[in-house]
Amino acid sequence: MSETEAIAKGDSPLDLSLSAAELDARREHITDFIADQLDAAGVDRAVLGLSGGVDSSLVAHLAVEAIGAENLHGLVMPSSVNDEATMSDAERVAMELGIEYDVIEINPIVDTFLDAYPEAEGEKMAVGNVRVRARAVLNYLVANTENALVLGTGNRTESLTGYFTKYGDGAVDCHPIANLYKQQVRQLARHVGVPQEIAERTPTAGMWVDQTDEGELGVEYDTLDSILALAIEGEVGTSATARIVGVDREIVERVRDLFEQSGHKRSMPPAPAKL
Q1: Strand 72-76 relative to strand 45-49: parallel, antiparallel, unpaired?
Q2: Is pLDDT at 205 greater than 80 in this prediction?
Q3: Is residue 173 a known part of a binding site?
Q4: What's the rounded mean pLDDT across residues 119-139?
Q5: Is 128 annotated as a binding residue?
Q6: Which of 108-112, 136-140, 155-159, 215-219 bottoms out in mean pLDDT, i.e. has the lowest?
Q7: How far apart, in Å, are the Cα atoms of 187 and each of 58, 119, 207?
Q8: 89 known member of a binding site
Q9: Was 264 annotated as part of a binding site?
Q10: Which residue, 6, 190, 230, 237, has most beta carbons within 10 Å?
């Protein structure tokens, strides 16, 4: 029985956690995946943006296991909206794992875009997306220079809700933790040795001051994971999902809308059919 089938049958509607054996299996599966991706591309190195959050910290730990710290180049890319403690933790992760890393301020890059198109000044979402896309460009600048792959940090919850920037943090060569719900990311992070304070930190995409994932999504991650598992991947009805999870029907409908409206982010850009 799949995990979504088990959830849909009501065995454990709010618990998507993995057993110790499952955590070990996921760990091995992901490290093998990373190594296989590099082998398939004929390269030895990878580049990873380090934010100080749980997703990038987990990918860093797993990548070091897969290809060795000497073959991973970390980029810490702070801007004026980032919390200093988070950026310090990004460097801390790199140093503890023995990863070569560079710190590159992205404010001058973002400012150059706004100088070129000042009409965007004050448009929070537009400018926030420029910050994310600037980091993607830098990831690929380093990767192309070093003949390396760019590792992504997107998880299953973000993918299903479209909570990522198109051609920003979604612009990578592979997503090692894309099959993990957010609560499973936290669990595996603790399992592989990511510091507790990083594993439990309030997630933020670093798009503007005081921005948080859960604040923007309008629902906490554990609840969101359960709704996605039931209503989107488990195909449980809206009313039943709301009853099982213990939320208003409107919350489930909002999550359905997020999934449906973000389909374009999970697909290649459309083109006309062949004549």
Answers
A1: parallel
A2: no
A3: yes
A4: 95
A5: no
A6: 215-219
A7: 10, 43, 25
A8: no
A9: yes
A10: 230
246 belongs to an annotated ligand binding site: no
pTM equals 0.90
Distance set, CA 73 to CA 29, 69, 100, 121, 160 (Å)? 22, 8, 5, 33, 28
Q: For residues 141 and 134, is the Cβ–Cβ distance under 8 A?
A: no
The pLDDT mean for the chain works out to: 90
**If one looks up domain 17-205 in CATH, what number appears?**
3.40.50.620
Tell me the β-bridge partners of 73. 47, 100
Token code pair at residue 196: 């507790």
Query: What residues contact residue 83 under an 8 Å CB cut-off, 6+ apart?
Result: 204
DSSP letters spanning 192-222: HT--HHHHTSPP---SSTT--HHHHHTS-HH
Residues 68-122 have pLDDT tens digits of 999 999 999 998 766 676 778 999 999 999 999 999 999 999 999 999 999 999 8
Is 50 known as a binding-site position?
yes
Is 145 annotated among the ligand-binding residues?
no
Is 212 annotated in a binding site? The answer is no
204 is in an annotated binding site: yes
Cβ-contact 59, 176 below 8 angstroms: yes
Known binder of ligand: residue 92?
Answer: no
SS (H, E, C) 64-81: HHHHCHHHEEEEECCCCC
Binding site annotation covers 124?
no
Q: Is 166 annotated as a binding residue?
A: yes
55 annotated among ligand-binding-site residues: yes
Does 29 appear as a known binding residue?
Answer: no
What's the CA gap between 232 and 227, in Å, rounded? 7
